[in-house]
Design goal:
The structure holds 2 protein chains of 2 kinds. Chain A is mostly beta strands. Helices cover 0% and strands 55% of the residues of chain A. In chain A, the strands form 2 sheets. In chain A, strands 2, 4, 5, 9, 10 and 11 form a 6-stranded mixed β-sheet that branches. In chain A, a hairpin with a 5-residue loop joins strand 9 and strand 10. Chain B has no helices and 11 strands. Chain B is globular. The chains are: A mainly beta, B mainly beta. The interface between A and B is medium-sized, with 18 and 20 residues.
């Protein structure tokens, strides 16, 4: 079993839609959870970083962590074409970061 | 804040040459820097972790004599691909963290093409 599972997509939505991106993990030792956005041929950009279960909001982005279910989500409200990118969930707290495979999101006008 | 600059962004060179890639944290001091490799449509693969002033820790299967890492200061790490061959062609990305419990901030990557 992989340490983290993430649907690779692609996920295609119309502009303005609410997007839900998810990851599940198996190791309860993970202590912090991140979402990165990666545009083509660029390095990942940190979007959200959280330690605890619950929700964390930043503008149009909301990160949700459920440690009991080992499930993390990123919601994007009012999605824009500029949100089209690959979104990586990243888990930390063990000896190294564990990366999801990334979900490719396409927001069409 | 937390800007990481990586240079060069793209390099093409002949087989057998050595290539040096620089990674700088511009507005913070990075105790730890990381080097990743990414193949098309795949996630990042950690190659090595470097702490300022000490030898890098390489992941299993990564040749330390092939990929030389130097982390001489709290703001600069370099990766040198020695005697590069076409199979070394890839996208190399560095990241930097203030410490091991802080999130990593990534550079924009270096596209290396070996002819």
């Amino acid at each position: 079993q992989k340490e983290v599972e993430q649907d690779p997509g692609p996920l295609s939505v119309p502009e303005g839609a609410i997007v839900s991106l998810n990851c599940t993990y198996s190791n309860s030792a993970f202590q912090y959870f991140m979402w990165y956005r990666q545009y083509s041929r660029k390095g990942p950009e940190l979007l959200m970083y959280t330690y605890s279960s619950g929700n964390k909001e930043d503008g149009r982005f909301t990160a949700q962590v459920d440690k009991s279910s080992k499930y993390i989500s990123l919601f994007i409200r009012d999605s824009q074409p500029s949100d089209s990118a690959t979104y990586l969930c990243v888990l930390g707290g063990t000896d190294k970061l564990i990366f999801g495979t990334g979900t490719r999101l396409q927001v069409f006008p | 804040g937390a800007v990481v600059s990586q240079h060069p962004s793209w390099v093409i060179c002949k087989s057998g040459t050595s290539v040096k890639i620089e990674c700088r944290s511009l507005d913070f001091q990075a105790t730890t820097m990381f080097w990743y490799r990414q193949f098309p449509k795949q996630s990042l693969m950690l190659m090595a972790t470097s702490n300022e002033g000490s030898k890098a820790t390489y992941e299993q299967g990564v040749e330390k004599d092939k990929f030389l890492i130097n982390h001489a200061s709290l703001t600069l790490s370099t990766l040198t691909v020695t005697s590069a061959h076409p199979e070394d062609s890839s996208f190399y990305i560095c990241s930097a963290a203030r410490d091991s419990n802080q999130p990593q901030h990534f550079g924009d990557g270096t596209r290396l093409s070996i002819l």
